[in-house]
Write a structure and sequence with these properties.
By secondary structure, the chain is mainly alpha-helical. The chain has one domain. The chain is 72% helix and 0% strand. It has 7 helices and no strands. The chain starts with 6 loop residues before the first helix and ends with a helix.
């Protein structure tokens, strides 16, 4: 939640370091993901249990969604999509802990991820089709190609903006609402709001990841 006291921000102030809070908590999320990955893979079993079972279930779910959305060829980009999904999910959830800040409640973090998806989408399109990828922007009727090209360019440029603002608006808005309720009734109302926050965290992770899959899948398709 957006707190008047943020643990890592206080720590950097004591050390006289000037680092943005979204950067601090991005590093924290990265450390959490690294520690979990190392712990889950430390003693891999044929029949998974505990943390290994949890991580395999999560990654299997992302892989199934990627294959359904993008087809078998899309699995080549599973590492990128899984990394985005896990980072967004942990970033969203960590904001529910008092004294911690969700990096996804900052537009800079979301813009960085959205631009990564944007660049990768077109890099993959060029890799798959070469210069023929430009046909995606021309439409099926040659006479209307100049008009369709402008419309397509505007639509594609709007994608990172949409991805960034959707995630930012939902996460930042939830944090503000939660803090208002905590200020009014500090013990009762925040509980259902925090439960709703867990739901929002998962939904926003799903939406961002699914849209990234759809964009990449569109770039891999043949132009008609």
């Amino acid at each position: 939640m957006i707190e008047p006291f943020l643990f890592l921000e206080w720590l950097t102030e004591q050390l006289h370091l000037h680092i943005g809070k979204h950067v601090l908590y991005t590093w924290l999320v990265m450390v959490v993901l690294l520690v979990v990955a190392l712990a889950a893979s430390k003693a891999i079993k044929l029949v998974p249990t505990g943390l290994q079972n949890l991580m395999e279930s999560v990654l299997s779910g992302i892989a199934d969604l990627a294959e359904e959305t993008m087809g078998p060829k899309g699995m080549a980009y599973f590492p990128l999509l899984a990394t985005l999904a896990l980072f967004i999910l942990v970033s969203n959830l960590i904001g529910l802990i008092p004294g911690f800040y969700p990096p996804t409640a900052n537009l800079n973090t979301n813009a960085a991820m959205a631009l990564t998806v944007f660049v990768m989408t077109h890099a993959i399109g060029i890799k798959e089709h070469g210069l023929s990828y430009l046909k995606h922007f021309m439409g099926p009727i040659l006479l209307l190609a100049p008009l369709i090209f402008v419309i397509e360019i505007i639509g594609h440029l709007a994608r990172p903006l949409s991805l960034s603002l959707r995630l930012f608006g939902n996460m930042y808005g939830h944090e503000i609402v939660l803090m208002i309720f905590i200020g009014l009734v500090p013990f009762l109302l925040p509980v259902p709001m925090m439960l709703m926050g867990v739901l929002v965290a998962f939904i926003q992770t799903f939406v961002f990841t699914l849209l990234a899959m759809i964009y990449i899948a569109g770039a891999m398709e043949e132009a008609h």
